[in-house]
Amino acid sequence: MVSLLVAVIITAVVFDYINGFHDAANAIATVVSTGVLPMRTAVLLAAVLNFAGALSGTAVAQGIASSYVNPELVTQTMVLAALLGASIWNLITWYFGIPSSSSHALVGGLAGAVVAHAGFGAFHWDALGKKVLVPLVVSPTLGFIAAFFLMVFLMWDFRKLRPDVANRKSRRLQLVSAMGMAFSHGSNDAQ
């Protein structure tokens, strides 16, 4: 039993590591490609902020732990299977350059482990719809709309600035954006 617990802990750390390099480019791509930060500084900043985000709370972890399956049914073997499935999926999508979500991979791994252990009825499919599928469609749509209005505001706000001033302000905003992305990634996925 102790060896299974150790295997679960090691696999969780491996999943978190894979998750980090799977999604790290999202946090630093703009600041590196535009020269706002050098690569090493951007990676170090992203690592520190991901770690800080992971320490900021446990709401996401508790939500995944209790939303999709009755906690009394969960075994260490199920958790190990879910982590292994999510890790393998992350490695496959990373290798082939397929954009995917580590959180969704973990929920998918959990669904497979629960169904294999306790049958289709043990997994809360309605929670999958409400907490994964609907946000998967709604979130990008709202993000697109918010980004449109933000760009209109920024274009209006920057219209009279000299190019060097606009560039300096844009670089600062990119840095803030990258820091926010890294922190939120840690607060969501690292938990």
Tell me the total number of β-strands: 0
Number of helices: 7
For the termini, the CA-CA separation is: 24 Å
User: What does the average pLDDT come to?
Assistant: 87
Give the amount of beta strand, in percent. under 5%
Helix/strand/pairing class, anyone? mainly alpha
Radius of gyration from the alpha-carbon trace, in angstroms = 20 Å
Order of helices and strands: HHHHHHH
Q: How would a crystallographer describe the biggest sheet?
A: none
Q: What form results from the Cα inertia axes?
A: elongated
Low-confidence stretches: none
Q: Estimate percent helicity.
A: over 70%
Overview of the molecule:
- By secondary structure, the chain is mostly helical.
- The protein contains 7 helices and no strands.
- The chain has helices spanning 2-33, 39-54, 59-67, 76-96, 102-118, 125-158, 163-190.
- It is elongated, with a radius of gyration of 20 Å.
- The model has no long low-confidence stretch (mean pLDDT 87).
